[in-house]
Phosphoribosylglycinamide formyltransferase (Microbacterium hydrocarbonoxydans), 195 residues
Amino acid sequence: MLTVAVLISGTGSNLRALLEAARHPDFRARVVVVGADREADGLAHAEEFGIPRFTVPWHQHESREAWGEELGRQLAVWNADLVVLSGLMRLLPAGLVAALSPRLINTHPAYLPEFPGAHGVRDALAAGVTETGASVIVVDDGVDTGPILAQERVPILDGDTEHTLHERIKPVERRLLIDVVQRIATGELSLTSAP
Ligand code: GAR
């Protein structure tokens, strides 16, 4: 059984989908801990599913490195096989990325390498393109530049707002994330040999 730590900042809808998938006996991964950089609403999903949770508040640390060191200490307690960034809206410091790599993946609401960064949905709308997408990648030391594990296109519709478009992307992200985690768990997908 693959053990998974999930890090969030927001509502944790993708986290919840993973928790629900993990209830299925055929799913080969289990979430063992959920961490956040703030008192994220999504921590409530962990509580509901009886999963341990921790918070390493960004604003209580004087630098990204200090925050990352504490995050690394908390993660080390659980020693999960895989760390999933599921809406964590902070860049991890390079030292922590190196320590967790390559067993560190991220979901992103755009068709990378298009529209990386914190505003992938807003940036796609602003660019006036007709389609965007969702991606699951291995985290490297760039901003959303790591090897792509799965991605899918999502059309942009007339009248879409950042909210409506993001809400249409998220179900695609969830499906991709669950599939990638299951394929890592079964050995079908090897992170060390990711393209
Ligand atoms: C997701 O769309 C995720 O891809 C995005 O935040 C959302 C979190 O939603 N992450 C990024 O944009 C990272 N650059 P959730 O909290 O409802 O799962």
Notes: The radius of gyration is 16 Å. The mean pLDDT is 96. The first strand starts at residue 2 and ends at 8. The domain at 2-106+136-141+170-193 is CATH 3.40.50.170 (Rossmann fold).
